Amino acid sequence: MAGHGAVPEDMRTAIIAALPRLRRFCTGLAGNAHDGDDLMQSTVERALSRSHLFEPGTRLDSWLFRIARNRQIDLARTSQRRGAQVAVDDLPDMMGEDGQQTVDNRSDLAAAQRALQAVPEDQRAAFLLVVVEGLSYREAADVLDVPLGTVMSRIARARARIEQVVGRSAGAQP
Fold first, then answer.
1. How many CB atoms lie within 10 A of CB 102?
2. With a threshold of 0.85, does the pTM exceed it?
3. Last residue of a domain, one of 52, 85, 118
4. Which residues in the chain land under pLDDT 70?
5. Whether 24 and 80 share a structural domain
């Protein structure tokens, strides 16, 4: 931020107001609340350090979503290079069945999360932006930097995959 000045107070206020939606988006991208919070923190840090790149007159939330998506892609690439890592403290928990996890897996929320995670990342991002965050297809296309038709297609495929995972056939009545 040196050389570019401090972050304007109105931008700080707008970022704070966008945090609940950004957290929801980051959690959906990352797959769990812990990694989602890490992604959100990284996103906000990046946004604040590069606030001079924000174009006034555009949507701040869309800019934050784009930063989050790009950070997630960067993190996935880094993770692929490093391979699977398990913290030493987590090793005892890897043995046997966890009672809390069993209960969570039976809940509708856990089933929805599993279904969402079964959707490929590009489709999941489009789905989260439009269905969860309420962006228009055009706004989601801008955030993802893809054509409008691609967003529509990704959302349709995401919905079909979610229906498949939760046990419904496409087009069946609930």
1. 10
2. no
3. 85
4. 1-5, 82-108, 110, 168-174
5. yes
